[in-house]
C-alpha cells in the first residue's frame, strides 16, 4: 500500500512501449464502487474473491505491465499463476509509508492503529511477496523514475 506500484508500473510500461493495467482499477470499474466500499459492504473475503478473479483475468488477457493489489498474493492459486511471470516486489519501510500515505482510514486494512497494522500486514505478507518475486526493489527515498529504472535493470529489460 502506497509503495508506488501504479506510478512505477505506468513508467515501466511507458519505457517498454507496452500497455499498463492495474487490477485495483479493474475491480473498481467492474464493481462500480471503491475497494474500501467493497470491504465495508461485503467484507474482506468477498473482496479477495473478486480480486482473485480480476488478477486471473488480467494475467490471461493482458500483455504488458500489470500492477496487483497488495493482498492479491495471499491467494495460493494467484501465487501459482504468477510463477510464470516476471514479478517485482516494490518494498518500503513503515516510516516511508507514513510519509507517502499518512496511513489514513481510506485504506480499509489500516483503519485502526495504522502503523501497527501496516507492520503486521508486511510481516504476514513479506515472505509471500519474495516467494513470487524475481526481483525486490526498495522504493524508500527514491523517485518513481529511479525505481522504474531499477525495475528495468533488475529484470534486464531494455527500453523501447
Per-chain topology:
Layout: H1 5-16, E1 19-22, H2 23-31, H3 35-42, H4 44-61, E2 64-67, H5 76-82, E3 88-91, H6 94-101, H7 114-132, E4 135-138, H8 144-154
Parallel strand pairs: 1-2, 3-4
Helix pairs in contact: 1-8, 2-4, 3-4, 4-5
Q: Could you explain the architecture of this structure?
A:
It is a single chain. The chain is mainly alpha-helical and 160 residues long. It contains eight helices and four strands, in the order αβαααβαβααβα. Strands 1-2 form a two-stranded parallel sheet. Helix 1 packs across helix 8, helix 2 crosses helix 4 and helix 3 packs across helix 4. The longest helix is centred in the C-terminal third of the chain and has 19 residues. The model has no long low-confidence stretch (mean pLDDT 87).
Amino acid at each position: 500500500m502506497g509503495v508506488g506500484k501504479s506510478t512505477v508500473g505506468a513508467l515501466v510500461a511507458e519505457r517498454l512501449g507496452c500497455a499498463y493495467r492495474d487490477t485495483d482499477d479493474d475491480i473498481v470499474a467492474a464493481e462500480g464502487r471503491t475497494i474500501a466500499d467493497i470491504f465495508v459492504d461485503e467484507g474482506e473475503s468477498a473482496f479477495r474473491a473478486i480480486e482473485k478473479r480480476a488478477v486471473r483475468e488480467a494475467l490471461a488477457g493482458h500483455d504488458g505491465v500489470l500492477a496487483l493489489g497488495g493482498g492479491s498474493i495471499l491467494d495460493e492459486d494467484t501465487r501459482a499463476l504468477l510463477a510464470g511471470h516476471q514479478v517485482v516486489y516494490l518494498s518500503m519501510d513503515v516510516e516511508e509509508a507514513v510519509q507517502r500515505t499518512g496511513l489514513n482510514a481510506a485504506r480499509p486494512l489500516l483503519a485502526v492503529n495504522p502503523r501497527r497494522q501496516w507492520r503486521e500486514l508486511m510481516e504476514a505478507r513479506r515472505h509471500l511477496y519474495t516467494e513470487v518475486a524475481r526481483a525486490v526493489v526498495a522504493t524508500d527515498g527514491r523517485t518513481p523514475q529511479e525505481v522504474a529504472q531499477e525495475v528495468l535493470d533488475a529484470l534486464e529489460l531494455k527500453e523501447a
